[in-house]
Amino acid sequence: MKLLLIVVITIFLQACATVSSVERPSSYYEDASTNEQVGLFNEITLADNDEKIRALLNYRVTLPKSSRIAILKLNGESRWRFYSDDFTQLTDSIVTQLIDKLRSSERVYDASILPAMLIPADKSVPILREAAARFQADLLFGYRTLCNSYQKYRILSDDETKSYCSVEAILLDIRSGIIVKSIASTESFAAVKTADDNNFSETIKKAELEATAKALGTIAEEVVSYLKDVSVL
C-alpha cells in the first residue's frame, strides 16, 4: 500500500510544472532612472494631436541592459486545454518553451505571464501599458493565434489531417507606448490519428497545437534577434 502511494505521488509530481517570474537585478533601478522620455502614448486617441504624432514617429527606442517581458495571449484559451491531461501538458509546454526562448536573450532577465488579475477587459494600448507597468515590465509581448485544418487533400488519408496556424505578435515598449516590433508567422503540421486519440477531433487539435508551437518558436527567435541591436538606456 505504501509503495502504491509513493508511485501515485511520484506520478503527480512528474506532471507538475511551475514557471515563476524573476526578481529584478539590483542595478536595474539606476539604469531606469536615466530615462526621461516617458508618456508619449498617454491618450486613447492622438488623431488630432500633430505634436504627439510627430513625437511618436521620431522617438528612438532605448531599453535597459536587461528587461522584463510580460506575456499576454490576446485571444481566449481553447476549451481543449482542459479536455485531457495530454492537451494540458501540450498547452503548458508551448508557453514554457516561449518563456525559455525569451529568457535566453542576454537582454532579458525575466519573461513571465502577465498576472490574470491585471488583465483588463479593454485591451487598448494605454490600458495594456498600465497593466504591464504594474507588473514592472519593460516590454509586453502580446500574441493571438488562428488555426485552420484540412482533411480533403489528395495526398491525405482518411485518418490524416494538416493544420495551418498563424500567430500574430507585437512587442510593446511600456515607457513610450510604442509597438517596437510586429511579427506574424504561419506554420503547418500534419498528423495521423493514433490509437491513443479518442476521436479524430483530438488528432486535429494536436496538429494545431504543434503548428502553433512552431510559429511561436519562430517569433520568439525574431524577438531575441531584435533585442540584440536595441540601444541601451
How would you describe the overall organization of this protein?
The structure is a single chain. 27% of the residues are buried. The protein has one domain (68-232): ABC-type transport auxiliary lipoprotein component (Rossmann fold, 3-Layer(aba) Sandwich), CATH 3.40.50.10610. It starts with a helix and ends with a strand. Helices cover 37% and strands 25% of the residues. It has helices spanning 2-15, 28-32, 50-58, 85-103, 125-134, 200-228, and strands at residues 62-63, 67-73, 108-113, 139-150, 160-173, 178-192, 231-232. The chain is of the alpha/beta class. The strands form two sheets. Strands 3-2-4-5-6 form a five-stranded mixed β-sheet, with helices on both faces. A two-stranded parallel ribbon has the order 1-7. The longest helix has 29 residues, at 200-228.
Key attributes of the depicted protein:
single chain, 233 residues, alpha/beta, Rossmann fold, five-stranded mixed β-sheet, two-stranded parallel ribbon, 6 helices, elongated, disordered N terminus
Q: What is the count of β-strands? A: 7
Unreliable segments of 5+ consecutive residues? 1-18, 31-38
Name the average pLDDT. Answer: 78
Architecture per CATH nomenclature, i.e. the level-2 architecture: 3-Layer(aba) Sandwich
Beta fraction of the residues?
15-25%
| Main β sheet profile | 5 strands, mixed
